[in-house]
Structure formats: structure tokens, C-alpha cells
Amino acid sequence: MPCGFPDSEGFPLAHSPQHLDRLRLRHLRLLELIADHRSLRAVAQHLGLTQPAVSQMVKDLEFAFGADLVDRSVRGVSLSAAGQLALQRTRTGLATFSHLAHQLDMAEPPVLRIGTNPAVMLDLLPSALTLAALAEEGPRFIIRTGLAHDMTTALWDGEIDCYVGRVDWDEVPPEAAVALRHDPLMATELVVACAEDHPLAQKRDLEVADLAGHIWALPPGDSRNRVAIDTGLRNNGLPAATVRYEIAADPNSLLLLARRAGVLTVVPRNALEATPPGLRALDLPALAMPAVQLGLFTLVESEQLRAVQALRDALRHAAQSATGIAAT
Predict the structure, then answer these.
(1) Domain total for the chain?
(2) In DSSP terms, which residues pair with 142 in a beta bridge?
(3) Do 200 and 277 belong together in one domain?
(4) Distance between CA atoms of residues 77 and 72, nearest Å
């Protein structure tokens, strides 16, 4: 028996491959217009069509997907739960079509749009991009940096093809999580860093208690690295760090301040080791800060792109050569 979402009379709707073949791009854009206008009449005016024609487009979509996508009421129309999910997935597809059309129009080499975190740009990603095996693929790279949440959102919305960095899975919507392909690459520990001439860098038998009273340069309070150091201090009976410089998503600036301003900071070890000499990691195992897990993330439909596969291989090679804990 065919299965699907129940229609307005309680009968199940079965998805129809035949109707899927008949869909056009404007059918997919229809869901976004309905979400924006909440009126079939307004959508019809926007598209330059009659309202019955728009109603038929809605029916075509619902038959194709086997689900009621639009809820109708005296106040207008809105997307159902299934419609909201379909909207998000079609946004990704439309963004991919738009990106492809731009590439073909410009007659340029293939473009791979990569999202990443600033710390990954200090070491892992540049190492992978410069590998000869990847260079032979010949793609052009467009790289965006930002926080993990912003990058996973950009991936989900089709604005980038892949993301190299950390992901906070508890912040990823379930419908997005099932659409992501995750390839673990490596783990690197968080460390407290300071200049080599800092008093703590010279101290023997260093303990967490010795951090008390020192000034810090740290990311904002809601960042994972900031939470890690504050938790580590609190678990050792110390108050939260005294922060003079707060900088978001820029480990390079944190390290520069540690070098020049004589403050403490917290960064992933691989970021510290990618910077010029003059800084030192303090040996403080009692802080017990969680390691940073790095991976390559793509949407399921993008994982077979040739450029993505080449990047995956290059990242694995670079991760094996990097200082850190091998991911499993």
C-alpha cells in the first residue's frame, strides 16, 4: 500500500515520480513566495499568473512529493511542517542551480566554495589546498571564514559546497543533521598560550592556581573555547578569566596580543604551532579542556563532486601530517 502524509480528508498521499519529472524551477521557488506573502493571490501577482494557475502549481508540488505542503485558512496560506522542510531543501537546490549557472555563464574553471573557521586557515586548510594532488584538479577556490554555526547554516542554505572545521551538533537542527555527510579529520587540544618571556612561561612546577590574577585575551563568552577555559578555571576553584581583550573568531589576533601585550590566551594547539616562534603553551593538564574535533562536512547531494572528493583526500593527508590527536 502506498504511504505518505494524509491529505485534508485523511487519505494518504503517495509521492509521484511522474509528477516530479514535470516540476520546473518556478515550482520550487513557489514555496518561498508562499512563506513570504502568505497569500496565493499575492503570489499570483508576483509571478504574473492567475490564482487558479498558482493553486495548480501547489497541487503539482504536493502530488510530486506526496505530502500536504500548504495549510489553507480564512487568513490565507502558510507552509505546513512538511512544506517548511521542503522549502529548506529546495533553497539548497536553487542555490546550487544559481551557482552552476553563474559558472557556466562566466566560462571559468570549476569553483569550490569552502567555509571554514579562522583557526583552520592557520594550518590545516592551507596545507591541504597546496597539495599537488589537489592542484591538479584545477578548481578555483572561494573561501569564507566564520563561526561554526554560521558556516553550517551557509552549507545548509547552499551558499557553500563544503565546510572544514568544528561543528556543535547540539546546535544543528535534526533535519539538517541527517542531510550532512561528516568526515572526521583530526582532533587538536586547547592550550593556554603566552609569550616566552611571560612570568608563567618561566615558572617551574606550574599549577592551574598560578593563573589567578593574570590578564587574558579571549573570544566572547558564548564561544566554545571561552566556555572551556572558564569551566576549567572554575573546576579548579578559580574565578572566570579577567578579560582585557575580547575578540571573536580571530585566533591570529589573540596570539598577536599574547605575544605583544603580555596576556594569556586559549587557542587550539595546531593554531599555536602554525605561528612564528615566541609563544609557548603552558602545561596544565588539570584544566582538562575538551579537544577540538575537526572534520569535513558536505550535503549528501554534494559529496560526490570531484573537487570535494579531491579536497577530502588532501585534508586527510594534511591531517595525518599535522600535530594533534588522530580522529577516529
Answers:
(1) 3
(2) 113
(3) yes
(4) 5
Residue 144's φ and ψ, nearest 5 degrees, are -115, 140
> Of 94-108, 228-242, 267-281, where does mean pLDDT reach its minimum?
94-108
CATH code at position 303: 3.40.190.10
Q: Which residues contact 327 (CB under 8 A, 6 or more apart)?
A: 184, 185, 186, 187, 293, 294, 295, 319
Q: Are strands 292-299 and 111-116 parallel, antiparallel or unpaired?
A: unpaired
Read off the pLDDT of residues 153-210 as tens digits, 9 standing for 90 and up. 899 888 999 999 998 888 787 877 888 999 999 999 999 999 999 999 999 999 999 9
Spell out a b/e string for 262-280, using b for 16 or more CB atoms within 10 Å of the CB, else e: ebbbbbbbbbbbbbeeebb
Q: Compute the distance between CA of residue 308 and CA of residue 314 in angstroms, rounded to an integer.
A: 10
Residue 97 in any domain: the answer is no
Contact 284, 201 (CB under 8 A): no
Short-list 67, 66, 64, CA closest to 28: 64
Judge whether 3 lies within some domain: no
pTM (2 d.p.): 0.72
Measured CA to CA, the distance from residue 59 to residue 64 in angstroms comes to 8
Domain that holds residue 271: 190-287
Domain end position, chosen among 48, 65, 91:
91
Tell whether 60 and 195 lie within a shared domain. no
In angstroms, the Cα distances linking 286 to 122, 229, 231, 240, 268 are 27, 11, 11, 16, 17
* Same domain? 202 vs 282: yes
Question: Is 327 inside any structural domain?
Answer: no
174 with 304, same domain: the answer is yes
